[in-house]
Amino acid sequence: MSKIKLAVPTIKYKDKALQFKKEFFDNNENVINGSELLDKTESYEEWLQSVINNADIKTVNSDWVQTDTFFAVDDNDEIVGIIDLRHELNEFLQDFGNSGYSVRPSERRKGYATEMLRLMKEVAKRIGLDSLQLSVERSNEPSVKTIKKNGGVYERSFEFEGEIADVYKVEL
After folding, report:
1. Residues 44, 17 contacting (CB under 8 angstroms)
2. Confidence (pTM)
3. Residue 12, burial from CB neighbour count under 10 angstroms (0-12, 13-18, 19+)
4. To 5 degrees, how large is the angle CA 139–CA 122–CA 165?
5. What is Dmax (Cα atoms) for the chain?
6. How buried is residue 20: exposed, middle or buried, by Cβ count under 10 Å (0-12/13-18/19+)?
7. pLDDT of res. 161
8. Half-sphere exposure (CA, 13 Å, Cβ side) for 76?
């Protein structure tokens, strides 16, 4: 695994972000967790404006909570993943937690998700959080391992869209 860093989305990432999104769709994956709806938005510029707005408490969408979204980029500035950090949990997010993330299909099983979450823990500390709540479908073993490697402790389970998901707490 090459070294990665978290990068704030900008217009310079447009082509790489669209390739990132296309790789998921080409792999028959229509959901990109942690992407702030990149998987549902046609226009990169529209998506980027939403990400910028939702990062600022003054302009966050009234149905959302303040959220920071980052691309995980490698040494070549290629996008290997995406991760978000929700500053608080509203009623809708009580089960889902503070963060979602995805690693592009061609870059999985290389340790990127574990490193992305480790870096996100540092961001969460900087904004004043003392823990993260993360949820994962029980069947998603790679993500369960990622959360546990980052100190996740099982708290409870819930059912979502016919699947059992577990909620973990990560102390910062």
Report:
1. yes
2. 0.96
3. exposed
4. 15
5. 41
6. buried
7. 87
8. 6
